[in-house]
Amino acid sequence: MNLKTARIIVLILCGLGIIVALLFPPTIENGHSMYGVQTGIFLILLAVVVGIFGIRCPHCGRSVFHKGGGDFCPHCGKRLDEKDDGSGGEKRD
Ligand SMILES: [Zn+2]
């Protein structure tokens, strides 16, 4: 999974989580069921997990999820949208 794909998946999961939680709130009709809210929270937590493990610098391999959507890796300083050409950074399997 590359960086761009991971970011898109995280955004979709967060959006779905919020939408599900808002569309299925606990109401009197459904007996104050928290099922919709729980599903929404689960989707957002899943987005966080995908973000932590999927949003990584292509050069040094370290997680950049918590650094927001910047263009440069805060660890090695290289551009996040460039492919690793093997001229620098450490390889990770
Ligand atoms: Zn890096």
Please provide a written account of the structure.
The chain is mostly helical. The protein has a domain at 3-55. Helix content is 44%, strand content 0%. It contains two helices and no strands. The two termini are 13 Å apart. The model has no long low-confidence stretch (mean pLDDT 85). Bound molecules: zinc ion. Zinc ion binds at residues 57, 59-60, 62, 73, 75-76, 78.
Describe the secondary-structure layout.
Blueprint lengths: L2 H21 L11 H20 L39
Helix pairs in contact: 1-2
Structural class by sheet pairing and helices: mainly alpha
Shape: rod-shaped
Q: Main sheet, how many strands, which sense, barrel?
A: none
Number of helices: 2
- The pLDDT mean sits at 85
- Percent range for helical residues? 40-55%
**Which percent range describes the beta-strand content?**
under 5%
The low-confidence parts are: none
Number of separate strands: 0
What is the H/E string? HH
Distance between the termini: 13 Å
Radius of gyration: 17 Å
| Heteromolecules bound | zinc ion
